[in-house]
Design a protein that fits this description.
Structural class: mainly alpha
Radius of gyration: 10 Å
Mean pLDDT: 59
Shape: flat
Order of helices and strands: HH
Number of strands: 0
Largest sheet: none
Number of domains: 1
């Protein structure tokens, strides 16, 4: 689970830097969820 979260955070950071949309809406959903959890 920790690896999953780390992967999601790395993907989110890369997406922010490259300004590219997630590869899939499913992946994007998890990236958004983990981003919200990180801010809480």
């Amino acid at each position: 689970m920790i690896v999953w979260i780390t992967h999601a955070k790395v993907g989110h950071r890369q997406a922010s830097i490259l300004k590219t949309p997630p590869s899939t809406s499913f992946e994007g959903f998890f990236i958004v969820q983990f981003s919200i959890i990180e801010f809480i």
